[in-house]
Amino acid sequence: MPTTDSGTPAAAVAVYAISVAAELSGLSIQALRLYERRGLLTPERTGGRTRRYSDADVARLRRIGELLLAGLNLAGIERVLALESDNDDLRAENATLAARLRRLRADTVRLASDNVALRASVAREAGAAS
Fold it and tell me: Where are the transmembrane segments (predicted)?
């Protein structure tokens, strides 16, 4: 994922005014304000309290628009967005666990090989001592 010089993901940089975010998402300014009040998104605020929307915010607004077109009400949209977020978190956790499992399996193979070598060494030492 591209990042800014400060390390912030580029999609998270809040740059769009509410009018631009509304145009990019195909929704009205009033709708954006409503969705913020309902907790469906939380745009950044400037020092003067002006809303600034990021690419990620615009993508979320587009998703809200898709769900509205599918016939969901705002409560349903809130639930779908929460479940999608949970799924994203679970996918990330699953990927982390899969990587850990691969490392553990590689460690198991290495330890089994070391065990065979140590047993052979012990057997040689025992044979030499007799």
Answer: 12-35
